[in-house]
Structure formats: structure tokens, C-alpha cells
Amino acid sequence: MFLGFGQLEVGRVWGVPIRLDPSLIIMAVLFVFRAGSLTVGLSSAAILLASVLLHELGHTAVALSYGCRVRDITLLLLGGRATLIDMPRSPWREAWMAAAGPLVSLALAVAGHVGLMFCPREFGLGVVALWYIRYVNGALLVFNLIPAFPMDGGRIFRALLASRLGRRRATFIAYRVAQVLAACMAVWAIVDAFDFVLLLIAWYVYSSAKTEYAMVCAERGYRFGDDPSDDDSVVISPPPYGGEKEVTDIFRGR
What is the pTM of this model? Predict the structure, then answer.
């Protein structure tokens, strides 16, 4: 069924809706254009989407095992997004939940590599598919371990800091690191023959990190510009931010 903003719900796993964003049309066109073949381009896009979905299901499985509520999983042009209504209260549980996605990608990359070792070379399309599975999931693994929001590495980094510094200060540090990395991505995108996709990723990293820090500030009753050193608490109340409030309640001022 179609949802708000043209999103399409294609099924449910463990009761969690799986949704496709209209931006995937752009991704499909880019893949077909680069491959020079409709079949190869769409097949490559399908492998990427399946890999991203399994990655997000890794996060979802751990979140559900911790008793967290998962609103949906959305596949977009820039990857996937599992939206949680609440998150683990422990930094270590949050770290494990964030690490679950990269671990799934690692397993898929290893599976693709092992498959290549045993797949007969005469199965040309099978060899290509296995190579792409290894390549895509290896790239997902490395990219998601970058220590910047909204990547999993940023959440792991924040969780490691939060046990000592408190959630707001830890998020502030992770937010600043994300800003620096986003700036580096943007510069590289401009220098490298104006790579539009990389520039888009840089903007996404910057804006997502800012949003994450703003919501943590709202959770703890601070304003965005307040000195993060004022927060010396290590009490964890993770996003969406507030034991009995949902994120929509916070932004509505309730």
C-alpha cells in the first residue's frame, strides 16, 4: 500500500513494516545508466537493496530482543533506515544494536567470498552476482563503521563515550566529529569532478548529526546552543528521547 510522501509498504518482518521510498527510482536509473544494461543495472540495484534490508533487519532483531519498539524500515536512495520509537537504555546495548548491522554485512561479504571460491567459472552470471554481493556488503561494512552520525560507527562511538561522559556530551563530541567528516566528504566531492552523490551524503551526514544532537538536548531539557559541559549526568534516556514521550511529542512541545 502507498503511504505518506509516496512511500510503498511491501511487507512486514517480525511485524515491522518494510517501506520503499520514491527516491529508489533515482537509484535504479543511475544503476541502469552506469551498467549500460537494464537487466544488469536492475539486478545490481536489487542486490544492493536486499543487502541493505538485511543490514537493517540485523539492527531490528537486536532492538526487538531488548524490548525496543521499531516503527518501520525504509529503503532510500542513500541506504536504509530503521526507525525506533525507543532505544536501549544502556550504552552497551545501544552499541551492540548499532554493531548488528555491520556484522550482518560482514557475514554477507564473507558468504560472497566463499561462494566465489567454489562457484564454477562457467556460471558467469552467478560469479558476477557473488562478486557484487561481496563488494556491496564490504562497502556497507566499511562505510557504516565511519564514526559519524547517522552511520552505525557514530552510534557505537557515542555509546562508548556515554558510559563515562554522559549522553549529551558524548553526542556533542560525536556530532562535532560528524561535522568534520562531512566537511571532508564535501571537499572531496567538489575536488573529485563534483561527485554529486558524495556531496549529497556529506549533507545527509551533517544534517543527521545536527538533528541527533538537537533531539538529545531536547530530551534532557537543554537548548541546542547550551554548553555541553554542563551535563555531568550518566543517566541514559535515549532517542526518541524521553521515558514516556515519543519524539513527535517533544517537537510538538507536549
Answer: 0.76
